Hints:
The chain has helices at 12-25, 38-48, 64-74, 92-100, 112-126, 134-147, 203-206, and strands spanning 4-8, 30-35, 52-56, 83-88, 104-107, 161-166, 169-174, 178-184, 187-192, 196-199, 215-219, 222-225, 229-234, 240-244, 250-253. By secondary structure, it is of the alpha/beta class.
Amino acid sequence: MTPRALIAEDEPLLRQGLQDDLRGLWPELQVIGAVGDGERALNEALQRRPDLCFLDIRMPGLSGLEVAQALAEDWPPGEPFPLLVFVTAYDQYALQAFDAQAVDYLVKPLQAERLAACVQRLRARLAERALPDALPRALDQLRALLEAPGADSAAAERLEVIQAGVGSVVHLVPIDEVIYFEAADKYLRVVTAEREHLIRMSLRELLPRLDPQRFWQVHRGTVVRARSIASAVRHESGKVTLTLRERPERLTASRLYAHLFKGQ
């Protein structure tokens, strides 16, 4: 079977250079797409289901890690999950996290020897993709990468009050009253037992300011207060349906976060 790859890199010269280098090192590899932003990378990967994805860590829209997170959540059950290679400028925190999880990565500017070694590892690992533990192993690696501390994570102050403006009125919502946060385009829905608010903040900005013991991320776009979860039902797909204490709607925990609901 001819292996198929997707390249997501926002620098056109580097994107073309990686494609050319792969053609020389791995002639039988078919590059089915080369895109410059995270949204297109996600859409292309879900539609065309490549065997390999080269993901730039910093791209417009979704980052490489966010693309990987979305792929882990939305990848069709039963389909072999793609091997992931992250492309990054030098960042000691990112590289330490990648090394700790044995995740393949390339550092800009790309070095021929490093790329050749990466190609050798990928060739060997392609045969392992169909093994029963391949997806769980990939999910464990992604969880660890997403949880790895960044350079400024210790400096983030915990939120105690959410300020939500509506016209000339600013509502002050104590953090303990929030049941869940949900990403909505460029805004966040802040949901309490009695009402909802919209604030102009991304989930990426919010997460470092929440206590992870009190607020659990259960999906790439959803964070819920742990003590507001009444029950969790696991499904064969690996996803989990959550019932809340103070709200009628049900939330979905993706495969990436299903490990939070293992039972005793």
